[in-house]
Amino acid sequence: MNYPCAVIQDLLPLYCDGVCSEESSRAIEEHLPQCPQCRACLEAMKKSEQTFPSAVEEEKKAASFRRLKKKLKQRQILMGAGCVALAALVLLVTSAALKNIRRTVEYEDNIQVTMEKSGLVSQLEGTVWNTCASVTLETREGNCLFFCFTDTVWDDLVTGDQTYSHYILCPADKGAGEIQ
Fold first, then answer.
1. What gap in Å lies between CA 59 and CA 127, rounded to an integer?
2. Which parts of the chain register pLDDT below 70?
3. pTM listed for this prediction
4. Which H or E run contains 116?
């Protein structure tokens, strides 16, 4: 069947891109050998295709960019997770270090020592201590109790000034009544 040149020329872009039906391709291929004007039109389209990338090439480039974007996003997520993990590790190491740095608790006006039923009790204001070392010495005036509190830098950071700690320095059954 012989189609008019206008119909063939309308189909030529689809033919160049390889997306027209078999029937349309056959009609164009039968028409081209007989029509120099349509052949020239097809040649011009092929030359312009070389100048302008085809839709397939553009799709390949777009797919390549999508893959690159996906890789970069994954890399950003990994970097973010790595930074969070590193920050968490630094916090853990720092808190562990602060919990292991021991120091003597200074007390002057912030301690009260009283005799109660349970024994000799101290009330320490503004700190919490981890260990208490005490020594009872016999002197001419009687027994004297010397004690030393230690805490950590971490305790000092997390303990408020309104904290009061009560501790038994010497239980009643261990001779607290004999200490002066």
1. 69
2. 1, 49-55, 126-129, 160-167, 169-180
3. 0.44
4. strand 111-116
Q: Could you report the per-residue pLDDT of 134-174, keeping only the tens digit for each?
A: 777 777 777 777 777 778 888 777 776 666 666 676 666 66
Phi-psi region of 21 (alpha: psi -120 to 50; beta: other; left: phi over 0): beta
Listing DSSP states for 66-79 in one string gives HHHHHHHHHHHHHH
Distance CA 63, CA 65 (A): 5
Domain borders along the chain are 5-51, 54-100, 103-178
The residue count of the chain comes to: 180
Tell the burial category of 68 from Cβ atoms under 10 Å away from its Cβ (0-12, 13-18, 19+). Answer: exposed
CB atoms within 10 A of CB 180: 8
